[in-house]
Amino acid sequence: MPIIRVEMFKGRSREQKRELARELTETFVRVAGGKAEAVTIILQDVAKEDWSIAGTLMADKYPD
Fold first, then answer.
1. CA 11, CA 38: separation in Å to the nearest integer?
2. Identified catalytic residue from 1, 2, 27, 56
3. Does domain 3-61 fall into CATH 3.30.429.10?
4. Which residue of 2, 5, 27, 58 has the fewest CB atoms within a 10 Å radius of its CB?
C-alpha cells in the first residue's frame, strides 16, 4: 500500500487538489505498477509562517 505525502503551501483549490491526487495516482500506477485503489495520498496544507528554509520563514520570503 503505497502512501504519497505532499506538503505544500495553503491556497490550492479543492479542484486543484482533486486533479493533483488523480495525476499522482495515475503516474504512480504507470511507473511503479499496482492498482490505483491501493494508492493513498495525503495532502497537507502548511502555512508559510510554519515553513522555513535556511533559517528564513517563507512568509518573510514570499509575502502575500
1. 28
2. 2
3. yes
4. 5
